[in-house]
Amino acid sequence: MTSATALARLATGVLLVLAAGCAGAPGSGAAPDTLRWAMGNAPNSLDIAHGFNDASTTVQFAVLDTMVAIGPDGRVVPRIAASWTHPDPRTYVFTLREGPRFSDGTPVTAEDAAYSLTRHLDPAVTSQAASYVTQVKKVEVTGPRTVRVTLRKPSPTFLATAALAWQIVPKKLAAAHPKDLGSPEVGTLGSGPFKVTKFSLASGVTLERNELYWGPRPALRRIEVKAISDPETLRLAVSSGEVDGTNDIQASETRKWSALRGVTTAFYPANHIAYLSLGVREGPLKDVHVRRAIAHALDRGALATLMTGGHGGIADLMLPKPQITALYGDKPPRLPAHPYDVTAAKAELARSAHPQGFTLAAPYDSGSDDVKALQAIAADLAAIGVRLDLQPLPTEQYRQRMFSHQDTPLQLVDLVYGTPDPGEVLPDLVSRASAGPQGFNFSGYGSPEMDARLDDLGTHEGADRAAAVTEVLAEIADQVPYVPLYTKEAAVALRDRYTGRFGTWTADVFSGIRPAAGA
């Protein structure tokens, strides 16, 4: 199966067509063109360099344009760039469309576009998106509306990752605020369909329609985004009409959501994977036999059932399923596996330097439902003498500890990616560049040989590319810096006075929502 065919099959978005005439439902006093949206966590930054997480990017993609975007079928489509050429394997030349302005009326320039990409490579910025653009060697403004990007090596993933990381911000603003762009104190400025009128870490974000937007006029005039950290409180808020919708539905709670009256909850394939990260640099987890023992000890089938509510399944490879399908079709590779087997787990532990077991710290976000999975994991590991010290932390404190790469020997990581290409994920997992502060290589696993293999991915296409990705996945499966656990479907709930269109590759959630007819 070709990648294009696979992607077309993957683009199974959902259209929520909801009953009209319910504007008088309890709690629905807001105007129909005002959407009240809730998420489990508040955005911590409106800049992807400092807020590369679901809550933050949900708002960012409504406000900030990207140079290119991922279309509904998984293919790259124009955004701020009206077109581009690819004159040689290492070069892309982008031509900006005429007319886009930031929401303050300032024209979007080639200088803004070029700087918005190169800033992620600046050590002073410490960008969380840096691993997405490590293949970039040079960015040049070559004309009033043209930008040339030169890559270090050919990279089939560049355009897809640019659709996420290349958010266009004013050069003057970004250069003046390398560390705090996107913070409540500084804010941000975009050319997207909405603009920010309020941002508070405590009370949330308010967006207004950007009347200067160059694209289709959004149906919504105002969006009020707030955090409701308790899952049951969030469900009740949607049920009562206190808020109009959310896409922050815990998979283990989907049955409760599907039963709500006056609310439609729909599901679609998520580019998601949950996995256990095992810090390989120190302590017991340096020993590969310990890591293999942990992998064998986990009942991943039971864990998937617990955490997905029937809307997901076991993760067999260290990639989201949409990416696996895009690359391999319906024939993924068979790699070294560590199936649930307590006897095998004990045998591996006996071969290690820690045959009697040990205790590991396991910090987690107290605002998520990760504790359910970690409690199940702790019970499984206790059977082989490995004890977990579960350490709940407030969301922001956990994020800081997580991205500092300190005191996190074992942690549950639950991520949603944005492109159909494994080149987005693998450098995050095992490149040495991503193993430092703000990077996503939480295990610390990496080597010069692995970096060279990752660099080499860009020289391959088709079957050769699949084979090259398989080599990286095979090393991960053998050395076990990560244990793939489960994948989930995404879910979105909307009250019946709205309709919406969503899919695997939807980045801008809000522009696809509109009042239902008659609302």
Automatic annotation (TrEMBL):
Q: Which InterPro entries match?
A: Peptide/Ni-bd, SBP_5, SBP_5_dom
**Which segments of the protein form a coiled coil according to its record?**
none
What protein name is recorded for this chain? Answer: ABC transporter substrate-binding protein
Signal peptide extent: 1-19
This protein's GO CC annotations: ATP-binding cassette (ABC) transporter complex; periplasmic space
Q: Name one GO molecular function term.
A: peptide transmembrane transporter activity
Question: Per its UniProt entry, which superkingdom is the organism in?
Answer: Bacteria
Pfam families the record matches: SBP_bac_5
Which SUPFAM superfamilies does the record associate with it? Periplasmic binding protein-like II (SSF53850)
**Lineage, opening ranks:** Bacteria, Bacillati, Actinomycetota, Actinomycetes, Streptosporangiales
Keyword list (alphabetical) reads: Signal, Transport
> What protein family does this chain belong to?
Belongs to the bacterial solute-binding protein 5 family.
Please report the stretch or stretches of sequence annotated as the Solute-binding protein family domain: 76-431
* Biological process, per Gene Ontology: peptide transport
